[in-house]
Amino acid sequence: MASRNPHRAVVARACAVGLVLAGALLGGCAALDAAAVAQTHRLDDAPYVVDLARDARPPGDGCAVALPVGVDPELREAIGYGGRLARLQPIVAALDARLAAHGGCLATTAAAPRAPQPPHVYVGVSEGELAPPQAADQRVPHDRFAPMVLHFERPCTDWQREAAGLAAAAGKPYVLAIQLGVGQYAKGYASAFRKEVVLGTNHRQPIRFLTTEGEPVEVLHLTGVLLDATGRPVRAGAEGILLRDTPFLAQTLGLRRVLDDVTLDRVLEDERREDLPGRPLKLDAALDQLVHQLLR
Fold first, then answer.
1. How many helices and strands in the chain, by DSSP H and E?
2. Which domain, by its residues, includes 116?
3. Are 157 and 47 within 8 A, CB to CB?
4. Which residues contact 192 (CB under 8 A, 6 or more apart)?
5. For residues 233 and 174, what is the distance between their CA atoms, to the nearest angstrom?
6. The whole model's pTM is what?
7. Looking at residue 146, what DSSP letter applies?
8. Overall domain count for the chain
9. pLDDT tens for residues 277-292?
10. What is the Cα–Cα distance from 287 to 114, expressed in whole angstroms?
11. What is the b/e burial string over 205-231, where b = at least 16 CB atoms within 10 angstroms of the residue's CB?
């Protein structure tokens, strides 16, 4: 278990700003990238998907080229995960294979943009350990607990240019970029005597009733971005795979249970959606749903 930082929310509010000005000093990014590069959206319920461009119309026929699945770079700094990223590689390989077998108008490519500063999606509670500072602004006075948010950081122009080139090479009008990561999701009530966590589209997971309501749960999830043929972000979203709650007594001490190696290993064979026909793997169901939501 890892200890929480009790001062993060206070620091987040002190540092919160409407827009983050970043990327101009990074190698390979033009000075224009210092313009508005981030946006934060409050999420009321699943699906956890946000349109990033008002005039964008994603293809209903799924015509896009999917980049190789990546691992959320934020995990390198996250307590409990920084030294264990190799455990995620078999899951990444399974996701790439699932995308390659998707069929239809969705194509895959082994190439990926090499420029720094790819797009990044944060989905989780507004005051989670991995939450960006400006996410704290989404909590309003009547909120009992921190709400769920989606925070999107735009890619630099060089990354967008390379993504556009990959779309052109594949003959597709859109690019799909997906990452495997960990988020902290809010708890809620399914009824007066039942608590749950909404992991994604039509995916609600019951949890023990004896749990600290204001403490989020650890969730293995997928985040994704759809970009048009010019590399402009169109839509972003996330789908949860599975969760791990922290025992009640540990929560009262400010501790958090991370996803251990045993849990990660079970993702590839044992963790299944019993509520869906055919009992698909939770991993496959989350990926299929995320692709559907981004391309719908």
1. 6, 15
2. 2-295
3. no
4. none
5. 10
6. 0.85
7. P
8. 1
9. 999 999 999 999 999 9
10. 24
11. bebeeebeeebbbbbbbbbbbbbbeeb
